[in-house]
What does this fold into?
Amino acid sequence: MTASAILSKTYKGKWALVTGASAGIGVALAEDLAAAGANLVLTARRVDRLEALAQRLQEQHGIQTRVIPADLADPAAPQQLYEATEGQGLEIDLLINNAGFGYLGEFLRSDLAFQRTMVDVNCAAVVDLTHRYLPGMVKRRRGDILILASTAAYQPVAYMATYAATKVFDRYFAEALAEEVGRYGVRVSALCPGPTESEFGQVAGSRKEEKRKYQPAAEVARLGLEGLVQGKTWVIPYSGGRIQVFAQRFVPRRIITKAAEKMFRPDTVK
Ligand SMILES: NC(=O)c1ccc[n+]([C@@H]2O[C@H](COP(=O)([O-])OP(=O)(O)OC[C@H]3O[C@@H](n4cnc5c(N)ncnc54)[C@H](OP(=O)(O)O)[C@@H]3O)[C@@H](O)[C@H]2O)c1
It folds into this structure.
């Protein structure tokens, strides 16, 4: 069976909740799931974008959609989101914890509120949503959870210190949970992209580097979903990233960390 046939067999007519569905990888995940016949709950802060996406996917694929705006930096948001889907009688069979953002620059000179919010959105909201939707999946003996980590989760990254640390959290959380809940028929996977075409750099305050290769978000989304349904507990969606992560095992972490510091050092730091 082809990967797209497996996706369709798994998700056709089921409800998927995608966080961060207003841009980048979240849009691409929603597009793939809609093509597979999944019904979608789309959430993020920019409601106009969510509504336009929902309408387009409904028309293209004849699926059902719901738009529920939420700011996941608000500690009350995951519960409100959960109550909204429960209140509408939607059984969420696929939870995608995709919303997230980064910051590139010196931690010392960064805004504390921005750093705190990064931890709230990238980590706390992921734990909260997962804890709320997991029991229903276990009860039904089926369900999937995809968590966006990053290749930044494989080593400390100076000038992205908090961001990389949040992504280690996401990756370890996903991989550990996968081992806990597999016995209940629930699959969990950490999707670990490298540089991907999206609005991430703009939000993180980094300039787009012409020499750097950015992977299309559609490719990242497709490989992440395929890995999830194939039962992979983590996916690095490009060969360069897999090679880098493998090779790093043979080099002391201090050396890797120093190399990353040189690579990401802003021009303002002498
Ligand atoms: N692009 C990359 O190179 C890359 C690499 C590795 C991992 N990732 C991970 O992939 C995920 C998606 O990022 P992306 O690259 O697609 O970036 P993006 O284009 O900037 O999209 C980020 C999404 O997260 C949502 N979001 C941000 N803050 C939020 C908040 N407070 N409440 C609710 N939603 C919020 C945004 O929606 P609103 O602004 O409308 O709320 C947007 O939909 C992130 O977890 C990121 O860490 C990205």
Notes: The chain has one domain: 3-264.
